[in-house]
Design a protein that fits this description.
alpha+beta, 2 domains, 5-stranded antiparallel β-sheet, about 45% helix
Length: about 290
């Protein structure tokens, strides 16, 4: 939704909401956001596939809220047509890799404990509840075939012969991701941009559940690999949800895979660049 229209719609739908300043964020892949006075956050889908899904997301988060100790969005404002919704602002700094490495050892431990407890509660959510809230199930075989096709057609022609060899070896290794594994409700995009650290209250807040699905629990540990393999392993040790001896290995495969996905998505017109994906590729596939 264009900025001016978005602001006008908020005024029309919620005349009691007032503000003196706002920030309009469009860097998200699927939603635009307006932050009003660092008090309220309104989100509106950017693409048709996400329209109508905010009400289902809000319903799921209502179920999760009393079951998790981290902060998650509480949608208190919903437009009449369901095209946008808002929740009280969740404080905290995005915990990207740079911010994570600035934390003290104690803070990292607090973050790990809270993430482990959050993922345990999330992954233990009954699938019947998730389905009732419109959560779809991932199709690993189809996703794998689509990924291989896109990498072969789009990415490999832009890489050097040694890099092509590395990617082909990875595609063989990652074939296990297309096989059956225990499934659970997953966040689906648990990276540093969606993990907020509120240092003042030693509190983790988790945002953006747009990519929620029923899938491999290991997928939610992939983003934690950015903080280091050992850190992800420590979080997994404290985690009490569904896991098996291959969970961490699959998380590492998903983590490396996202670099290839970013390159492919950039060439398909998504809001990312090939250079971003290539930098991730060089970092994650180094010997």
């Amino acid at each position: 939704m264009e900025e001016g229209l978005f602001l006008r719609r908020i005024r029309e739908e919620f005349p009691d909401v007032t503000w003196t300043s706002h920030r309009y964020l469009t860097n998200g892949w699927d939603h635009a956001a307006l932050i009003l006075d660092d008090t309220l956050v309104f989100r509106a889908p950017k693409v048709p596939a996400y329209r109508g899904a905010l009400a289902q997301e809000a319903r799921l988060l209502r179920h999760l809220r009393p079951r998790v100790k981290v902060g998650i969005p509480d949608y208190t404002h919903k437009s009449a047509d369901g095209s946008f919704a808002g929740y009280p602002f969740l404080a905290g700094r995005e915990l990207d890799v740079g911010a994570f490495h600035q934390l003290s050892g104690t803070e990292r431990s607090y973050v790990g404990d809270q993430l482990a407890a959050f993922l345990t509660a999330l992954h233990e959510t009954p699938k019947s509840v998730a389905r009732a809230c419109g959560v779809s199930e991932r199709e690993p075989e189809k996703e794998s075939a689509d990924l291989v096709r896109d990498i072969e057609a789009l990415v490999l022609p832009r890489l050097s012969p040694p890099e092509v060899h590395v990617v082909r070896a990875f595609l063989t290794e990652r074939a296990e991701l297309a096989s059956a594994h225990p499934t659970a409700l997953v966040h689906g995009d648990l990276g540093g941009e969606h993990i907020l650290w509120d240092a003042e209250h030693a509190q983790v807040n988790i945002i953006d559940f747009s990519d929620r699905s029923i899938g491999d629990p290991a997928f939610d540990f992939a983003g934690l690999m950015g903080y280091g393999h050992e850190y992800a392993a420590r979080v997994l040790e404290r985690y009490r949800g569904p896991k098996d001896e291959g969970t961490l290995r699959r998380a590492r495969l998903y983590f490396r895979q996202t670099a290839l996905e970013t390159m492919a998505h950039a060439l398909q017109g998504y809001p990312c660049t090939f250079e971003e994906g290539y930098a991730e590729f060089r970092a994650r596939f180094e010997p």
